[in-house]
Every structure is written in C-alpha cells, then in structure tokens.
tRNA(Ile)-lysidine synthase (Arsenophonus nasoniae), 446 residues
Amino acid sequence: MNVDEAALLNQIIKAIGSTRRVLVGFSGGLDSTVLLHALVTLRQTAVPNLNIRAVYIHHGLNDKADDWAIHCQQVCCDLQVAFYSQPVYIDPTKKGIEAAARDARYRAFREILLPEEIIVTAQHLDDQAETFLLALKRGSGPAGLSAMPISMPFADSYLIRPLLSFSRQQLVVYAQKKALSWIEDDSNQDQRYDRNFLRLTIMPHFNRRWPHFSQAVARSASLCAEQEALLNELLQDYLSQLVTAEGALQLDALASYSAIKRNAILRRWLSFHRILMPSRVQLKQIWQDVICARPDAEPQFKLANNNVIRRFKQQLWLLPQFNDLTKICLAWQLPAAIKLPDNLGTLRVVDKGISVRAPLQNEKVTIRFGLKGNIKIIGRQHARRSKKLWQELGVAPWLRERIPLVYYNDELIAAVGVFITESGRCIQGQSALNVKWITDKKPLLY
C-alpha cells in the first residue's frame, strides 16, 4: 500500500493550523516515530519556524522502559528536537491498567505543556476503528461512537491527532521509505487487553472480508460526531437558560422535559464541567435518587474521579468529593493568622469584621469543623438543632462541615461568616475580637 508523503505532510499542516509550538507525545513506536519525523521534515521545508518538543511518558510498566527512553532520546538528538522523559504513577485498581495508563499519560501532558503550545499525538485510522468498536462494546451512544476527533480542547490549548486518516500500513510504508527505526512494544501482543484483542484477532477478519472496513468505521464515527454537534447546537439555548452563574443546573424547568431531552441536557451539563459521561443507568439513578428525592433529603451521587452530584434549592451541583474535616481541631495562637486545612484559606484578626467577645485568659481558642447538638445563636429566640439551623440559614449541605467554627475551650463561639452564638456575644464594655475568613473560593464551591 502506497502512501502519498505530500498528502501526509499537508494533513499535518492543516491539523496544526497556525500554531508553531508543538509538543509531540513520543513513545518511540512506529506511529509517533513517523509523526515526529514528518514534523521535522516540515520544519526543514514548509514551516521553518516550527518549534518541536517531544515527551516520552515513562509508565514503568515494562522492563524495557528505560531502554526505550534512551532510544527516544537518541532519535530526538539526531533530529535536533528537545526531549523530555516524564515518569508517571499508574494506579490500576480503579479502572484497569489500560485506562489508568491513559489517565496518567494525559495528566503528564497537562503538566509539561507550555503556553501557546499544542499537544500532538499519533493515533491513526486503525486506532480510530478500534476505539469505535470499544465504544460499541460498552454500549455508548453517539458521543462515545464519535471516537477520536482530529482536534479537541485540552488543558487551555488543543490536542491534535493529524494521522487519523492514515492506516498503520501506510505509516509502515512511510517509515520504511525513510529508513526509520522504531520500538516494538511486546505488551502489544498481550490479548488480555481489549484493544490488543481487537487488533490481533478481530480486525484481521474484518479487513480480509471488507478491505475498507476501517475507513467505513471512521465515516460512521464522523457522522456520530456531526449528530452530537447538531444536538449541542439545538440544546445550547436550553442549557444557557438552565445553568446558573455558579455552574449549577436549575431543576424546575428540567422536570417538564421528556426523559430523552432531560438526559441529553444532563449529559451536556456534565460535559460543560468536563466530566466523563455517565451511563444511561447512572443518568436514571441521578434522576430518581437525587433530583426526585424527597424535599427534605440531602441526596448525592458519586461519579468517577471523585466528583459528586448534589441537589440544593432545586439546583443540581457538581462538586469534588471533599475531605472529612470533622476530626480536625486546630489551636489558634492569637493574634497570628491561622491557615485552614484543605485549601480553605486563612482566618485573620482584623480591625473590622465579625465581632465576638475576646477570649478570657484561661480560654483556649480552637478551630473545628462539623456542627453538632443544639445551638442558640444571636437573632434566634430558641436553640436549634444543627441541621435545622443550617437549613434556616440557607447553607448548602456540603459547606456545613467546611465552615470554620471558633471555640473557646469547648464552647462554640461562632461559625465564621455565618453566625455568632449567645456565648460569643460581645457585650458593651467587653473586649472584642474581629475575625475575617480570607478565601478565594466561590461561596458555594469551597
């Protein structure tokens, strides 16, 4: 099978557009070797101001990984390309080795990517067909079956895959013509991995029966992407009306839509927050267990990557899984500022602020989290149970254990920024303590 070198180079030029700073994901395998060589060829000919860097992601999963890094470094040295080897940690316990390695790889790309630089990777036509079939195996809808786009937003920049229209065999021809050397990863023969099973066992049958199968799959993926783009366009106005300035989703109007339309909006709301798409079963659970939960409930649904969906005041919120702070007790040495845990900011003594009575000489000042028991606050005639008090004050459930509580010995004085207890009331003639909570977080998204 021949490959038109000019067509390959022109496709890369078209894919990278006006960008002149490129970071190449370089494993040393056939695909990335061809991509790097082609980019260097463009730098020598059509795009002389092209700045190329290459990064080898050292997963540490193969005994030969160190040798592969040395090979990649030598290739980059020969091509006069800046080279970086980036070690990553793989945790296969949650998603499996393939998904964990991919997540680690893209985290590393985000870390090393420079301003005004794009990341370029070497997935090709056969990879696209495999990705489509893997999505089909998972029961994905049009979004999943769209497979891999040539260009997609990534870490305030873009991830570009310029070789998607070229088959692996075409890349082999290019590499042989240019006398390139590349690494053959022996783990690619391990059919315990789904992608390897498809590549080694299933795809050869398809290609023998239907020689243009991969091209047909790529067309189907492209059509699915077009359908998704059309749905995005049609639903954008609805989403704009339903999403608040803080990114929450208003539920009153959503309840009047059909299940199909509702799920489509929920998916796009999650996509707006760059969250991995939930399954249809999960969307049903979100609707039944969170959105339709009884009014006085505080429902939540845990998503992948430590994200949580919660409902509050007929709005749906996407939040991180916060750390438990209820066992923390911090001694506050006044008048110095005190740093709060979990990136919550600091408490400072200021000239003007929340005024509570100053502590007596025998009173130890501490900061704690997690309100319990009956609390009588200034402005309320009777004491309230903690949950009831938070509800009356309109404090979101996920904030109730993240608001710093000031104690003198074991007596609650104030929830900073929210209320002061009767025990913390500053009577005329008493010394006052003005406390200010300094944080750059949004009020409902600490």
Remarks:
- The longest strand covers residues 346-357.
- The longest helix spans residues 213-242.
- Residues 243-320 form a domain with the Chorismate Mutase Domain, subunit A fold (CATH 1.20.59.20).
- The chain has three domains: 5-218, 243-320, 329-438.
